[in-house]
Structure formats: structure tokens, C-alpha cells
Amino acid sequence: MKKRYYLAALLALGFCANASATNYLGPPTTRIKAGQWLVGVSYADSTQDVEFTDGFVFEDLDAMFILGRFGVGLATERAELFGLVGAAQLEQDEFDTGNDLVFAGGARLTMQRGNELDWGLVGQVTYLKTDSDSVVLSTQTGYELTVAEAQVAIGPCWRPGKAILYGGPLFHWIDGQIDTDLVGNHDIRQRSMFGAYLGGGLQVTEQFTATAEIQATGDAFGWGIAAEWRF
């Protein structure tokens, strides 16, 4: 029982420091031109239940992301690659972290193009790795944490005039491992993989777009906003 309490406290502290939860994804289709670039910023806030291989469940992990965004069009109104870099802050009960560095990348593909209604696929992957140490129950212990997160969504994007409305089914996957000096290695995974997302926004000008969205699975809920400029 004492070892289990050590493990729960250590995983709480370690996972809060560098873990990942649902993040802003954006429309499943693209209207960017080949060779055109985009820059922007996004903010996301979510809560996520996480399960460890010993059956311990870490509930209501709150994650906040603020990310710079950049991308390029590969095929006009058909394919886009993008990257993300920024900071994450995570909280749970009395645990509160500072800002941790986050990297991610993804792609957006328009599979069917219409005048106002497009269908497509969007996916992004986030990867984090860190070495650190913490004091847990008066014991100094080091740990190494690696976490990979993938989000994939498919669905329609409706663009009547300047308005944007999108959504569809969502796949959310987390895989990671924490290696501790105190209690050894343990795997990390999320409790629910499938859900849905819904978003909307405005094409303010030909170059500037602003959107907001919500995401939900059986054990996670999040929302996010983003602004992008194409040039």
C-alpha cells in the first residue's frame, strides 16, 4: 500500500509536469494554395482522465496549451502541412506546473471539394520527453518521461460566405512511459480513444481566419481557439 501511494504521488507530479491532453485541431479541410505559407497562434484548455498499467486512474488532469503555428500548402485547396511549438501548463489538485516546451506537427487533406461544402481529414502528433527530479513524501527521486499524443478527425467543413462550420468523429490516442528511480517503469495511456469535435469561425479577410472548437471523448473534454494569417 505504501509503494502504491508513492507511485500515485510520483506519477501525479511527473505526469503533470509534461503530459498531454486534447489540443486544438482545426478544420478537417484546407483552402490554402500550393506554396502559400501560414502563421498563427492557438490556445487550448482541456481535462483528461489517464490510466496507468497498474490500474491507477489519474482523474481531471487540466492542460493548457499556447502554441505558435506555421504551415505551407502542398496542393492548392487539397493538402497542407503544419507545425506547432509553444508551452503547456498542467494542473491537478495541489499540483501546478510552470510552462513546458511542446512540439507538434500535422497535415490537413481535402478529400472532396465543393463550392461551400468540403470533406477532409486532419491529424496531428505531439511528442514530449523530459528528465527531471522531484521530492515525493520527503524522498528525492529522478524520473524520465516520454509521451506521444495523436489526434485524427474526419468530416465536413461548410463555408457559407465568410462563416466556417466543421466537425466530425475524433480519434485521440496517448502513449507514454515514466521511468523512475523510486518505483521503476510504468506505462501511461488514456481511458477513451473515440469521440467527436465541433468548431466554427470566420474568414475575416482572404488572408485572416479565426476559429474556435470543442472536443469530447468518454473521459476528456476540451476547447480551443486559433487565429491564422496566410501569405
Task: Give descriptors for this structure.
disordered N terminus; Lipocalin; mainly beta; 1 helix; 231 residues; twelve-stranded antiparallel beta sheet; single chain
Describe this structure as you would to a colleague.
The protein is mainly beta. It has one domain (2-230): Lipocalin. 7% of the residues lie in helices and 69% in strands. Strands 1, 2, 3, 4, 5, 6, 7, 8, 9, 10, 11 and 12 form a 12-stranded antiparallel sheet that branches. A hairpin with a 3-residue loop joins strand 8 (163-180) and strand 9 (184-190). The longest helix is centred in the N-terminal third of the chain and has 17 residues, at 2-18. It is elongated, with a radius of gyration of 19 Å.
Q: What is the CATH first-level class name?
A: Mainly Beta
What is the fold named in CATH at topology level? Lipocalin
How would you describe the shape? elongated
Report the β-strand fraction as a percent range: over 45%
* Count of helical stretches: 1
Please identify, by name, the CATH architecture: Beta Barrel
Strand runs, count: 12
Low-pLDDT ranges: 1-20
The helicity comes to under 10%
Structural class: mainly beta
- Overall pLDDT score: 80
* Rg from Cα: 19 Å
